[in-house]
Amino acid sequence: MPGFLAELNIFFLKKTTRGEEVRVRALDRKALLEALAEELPPGTVRFSSKVVSIDTERAAGDSSVTVVLGLDDGTVIRAKVLIGCDGVHSVVARWLGLSEPASSGRSAVRGLSVFPGGHGVKRELRQFLSEGLRAGMVPISDTDIYWFLVNNTVAAEKEAAGDPVKTLLEVTDNLARHMPAEYLDVVRHSDHGNLSWAPLLYRNPVSVLLGPAARGPVTVAGDAFHPMTPDMAQGGCSALEDAVVLARALSREATPAEGVSAYVAQRRWRAAWLVAGAYLSGWIQQGGTNVGGVRGRLVKVFRDWIFYRFVFPRLADTMWFDCGDLTPPPPTAAVGKSHHIE
């Protein structure tokens, strides 16, 4: 049985090298999505619509390009811009020719635990390190706690993933059985409808940096562009950055294709760095994925004595990024550069 090594609070995260204070703000994903959706006009979101084909066409005597989407119910949608925000296994990214996401060799169980009478847990991120495992929990509200367990991928995942009962048993009776009782109690209070166990995937940073992330007025954003492991908690944050940069680029360039090109050029370097930083952070914090013996011990020494004290604060510096604003360009700069985006 792997021995429990340490509980690690976020002392190494409280300040970046620039003196910025780092705070963990846990949100209910459903509540966030609902808040975003409520800002859109009714009917904007079309649910249960699978894209089965993507094509482009040019109008006779016109240089503009129209993107043609085919849905599985036979619906055809034409648009001036296509932004693929369809996740790690993006249909749009595949159409563009970006490389397929790769396995990090690790998987994550994620859950939401509910305590109707209140949990009484202090509102801070707590992390527990063990051999080949990294677990943590952070309250979202007075009644809900988000928890996670990152493990080197094991054979049991194939059978248990998708079955909440089997997943919880695997966590409490096997993977995390040596974890603190408080953590296990949180796990046992999990809402079965908010439980997942999936491999942690990422896109090779070289592909993010050099791959075909745009073709005419078609591009990708968020996980469809730069899937990363969750070890720096920047997946959703970087997607919001994408949105700001893309919206500004589309508003300022002469054509949708030029706007898309400007957006990709601006986002490539930062996105590639975030993917690489997250992977490195996770690999080291877990003591080296599938690394044992002397090498494994050296990784752990580096993690406990150097990484958390000197390296991670510098990685945390990248969390601060000035997206700029969405203020329209001056009227003189916008002459001849207006276009309608659908």
TrEMBL record:
Gene3D superfamilies: FAD/NAD(P)-binding domain. SUPFAM superfamilies: FAD/NAD(P)-binding domain. Coiled coil: none annotated. Residues 32-275 form the FAD-binding domain. One of its GO terms (molecular function) is FAD binding. InterPro entries: FAD-bd, FAD/NAD-bd_sf, MOase. Keywords: Monooxygenase, Oxidoreductase. It comes from the Eukaryota. This is FAD-binding domain-containing protein. Belongs to the 3-hydroxybenzoate 6-hydroxylase family. It comes from Zea mays (Maize).
